[in-house]
TrEMBL record:
It holds the Pfam family CheW. Residues 1-26 are annotated as: Disordered. It comes from the Bacteria. GO terms for biological process: chemotaxis; signal transduction. It comes from Lautropia dentalis. This is Chemotaxis protein CheW. Gene3D superfamilies: CheA-289, Domain 4 (2.40.50.180). Residues 8-26 have a biased composition (Low complexity). Residues 31-172 form the CheW-like domain. Transmembrane segments: none annotated. SMART domains: CheW. InterPro entries: CheW-like_dom_sf (IPR036061), CheW-lke_dom (IPR002545). Signal peptide: none annotated. Coiled coil: none annotated.
Length: 177
């Protein structure tokens, strides 16, 4: 399901419930609407304008590339185009993301001009960061793609994942060993 389809479903559900719905990424989007996802045990918010498609993980279809870092899982064909597959948790120094039936690949928006996917443990739908409490804690300087921290009403910590900063990071571009 593409992000645009997910937003369309959320808009329909919100209209049915009689509440205001977030605008699609193509329209005048509310900057507080984000795609919510889990990578390992961590929760992330991704700007809808930076997210592409959400596709199931085809483990047997990921073609490994020799002499690359362990977080670079290989390449995969998504609708006729080759995309790299990156284990974001491992890239950031954590353990490998376990693959399950809930796992997905999040492609980057075509606007970023970067054919990459991130392995996601679970998709959590859409979240509005305006309903969350911003935290004063500053993100790590060595991870400029993690830009803001929030706490939701249930006490969960959310990190804002800026994909445009991620694809510009030299560490992300250097996949060779």
């Amino acid at each position: 399901m593409s992000v645009t389809e997910a937003v369309g479903h959320a808009q329909h559900a919100a209209q049915t419930a009689g509440t205001a719905a977030p605008q699609s990424a193509a329209g005048s989007s509310a900057s507080s609407s984000h795609l919510a996802l889990m990578v390992g045990e961590d929760r992330y918010l991704v700007d809808l304008a930076e997210a592409g498609e959400i596709v199931p993980v085809p483990p047997s279809s990921i073609q490994q590339v020799p002499l690359t870092r362990d977080w670079f899982l290989g390449v995969v064909n998504v609708r006729g185009a080759l995309f790299t597959v990156v284990d974001l948790a491992r890239f950031m120094g954590g353990s490998f993301t376990p693959l399950s039936k809930e796992s997905r690949l999040l492609t980057m928006s075509p606007a970023l001009a970067f054919n990459a996917t991130l392995v996601v443990t679970r998709m959590l739908g859409l979240r509005n960061s305006a309903t969350m409490t911003p935290l004063d804690e500053k993100p790590a300087l060595d991870k400029p793609w993690l830009t803001e921290l929030y706490r939701d009403g249930e006490g969960q910590i959310w990190r804002r994942l800026n994909l445009s900063k991620l694809v510009a990071a030299s560490a992300f571009l250097m996949v060779g060993r």
